[in-house]
C-alpha cells in the first residue's frame, strides 16, 4: 500500500537543522509519528515528499524555511510593558519570566500563542512570537513503518487513532 490521500501513515524520523546539522527532534519506533495523510495537518511539502512511498522505505529530504515554518518576521518581535507580567502583588515573577523562557499568551483576538523572552528590562519585556523553527531549513531522514487505510471514524474526526495517534 502506498502513501496517498486518506491513508494513515506511521513513520520515524530525525529532524535536523539543514544548515548546521544540529538535531532538533528525533523519534523512535516506540514514539513514532502517526498521522492521517492529506488532511492538511502536516507541512504540505513534508506530505508531498512522502507521496507514493510504502512501508519499509527510507526518506531523506529537506524543506526550506519558507515552505516550513516561514522566515523570521521582525514584526513578531515586540516590546511589552513589564507590568503585564506582574503577579497579584505587583511583583515581577523572575523565576517564570527569564530570558529564553517560553510564555503562553493570548492576543487581542483571543488566539493562543507562545512567545520567547528575549530581554527583560525595568519597564519592558522584549518577546519573540516567531515560531521557534521560523527561519530554519528542515532536514528530515526516517523510515516509513506502516501505511494503512483510514477507518471511517478517523476520516470523520480528521485525525489518526491508535497507539501513536489520538487516543480518546
Ligand atoms: Zn478522533
Short description:
This protein is mainly beta and 168 residues long. The protein has 2 domains: 84 residues, Chitinase A, domain 3, CATH 3.10.50.40; 55 residues, Beta Barrel (Thrombin, subunit H).
The CATH C-level name of the largest domain is Alpha Beta
Largest sheet: 5 strands, antiparallel
Q: What number is the mean pLDDT?
A: 93
Give the radius of gyration: 20 Å
What count of domains describes the coordinates?
A: 2
Q: Give unreliable regions as ranges.
A: none
Helix content: under 10%
CATH architecture descriptor of the largest domain = Roll
Q: How would you describe the overall organization of this protein?
A:
The protein has 168 residues and is mostly beta strands. The chain folds into two domains: 7-68 and 136-157, Chitinase A, domain 3; 74-128, Thrombin, subunit H, CATH 2.40.10. The protein is 8% helix and 36% strand. The chain contains two helices and nine strands. The protein has helices at 44-50, 152-157, and strands at residues 7-17, 23-26, 33-36, 58-63, 77-81, 102-106, 112-120, 124-128, 138-149. The strands form two sheets. Strands 1, 2, 3, 4 and 9 form a five-stranded antiparallel beta sheet that branches. A four-stranded antiparallel beta sheet has the order 5-8-7-6, with no helix packed on it. The protein starts with 6 loop residues before the first strand and ends in an 11-residue tail after the last helix. Bound molecules: zinc ion. The site of zinc ion (ZN) has 5 residues, from loops.
